[in-house]
Amino acid sequence: MPQPVEKERNAARSRTAILNAAERLFAEQGFDATSLTAVGSAAGVSRGTPGYFFGSKAELYRAVLDRAFAEVREAVRSGRARALASSRTAESILAGAVSDYFDFLAARPNFVRLIEREALSDARQLEGAGHLSAGQEALAAISAELGLDDAESGEAAHLLLSVIALCWFPLIHAHTVAPAVGVELRTAADLERRRRHVVDLILHGIRGLAAPAVTLSEVESHD
Question: Which of 60, 121, 173, 178 is the most exposed place for a label (fewest CB within 10 A)?
Fold first, then answer.
């Protein structure tokens, strides 16, 4: 007879497999075209198992989003903690955060596709999801480190939106807009060049100088 600990391990493995399969299918097909049966099949579990763990497709979708945004929050926290421990300047901390965020998105194409689908569907499933707390945490970090206005639509908020846009847009349009304007994002070297450009651009923007005061090579301790 299976021991309780083994049952818990099996349950945890099944839950993770379901979340992984659901994330991929929701990203590739969208919410409406994805069924719990298809998720179960892709996860290698019985057709009723996703419903057993999550109740409904909507709840499974929310769990997928919650997990993704929890990863975003963890990336923000760990990156900031690492930078603060290094006693670097505020600009170096920002450079590291931008670099970490770009790497996070580049490594999670399904997350990028999911949120893009949400944008095209008026974010009907995002209401109440963890994206707000993730954004607020990142905003608070930027405000604290750079001493920017943290009011609604203040300098810190606009800077954060610019960071997200510069990292996000090329990745979601790696096969459409990017090649149309002569930017290839197919290889690791392509992504590295783009990452460096974004970091330098952000630093240049906040300083208002002809060149950034901090180069990416000076803040590469996360690698």
Answer: 121
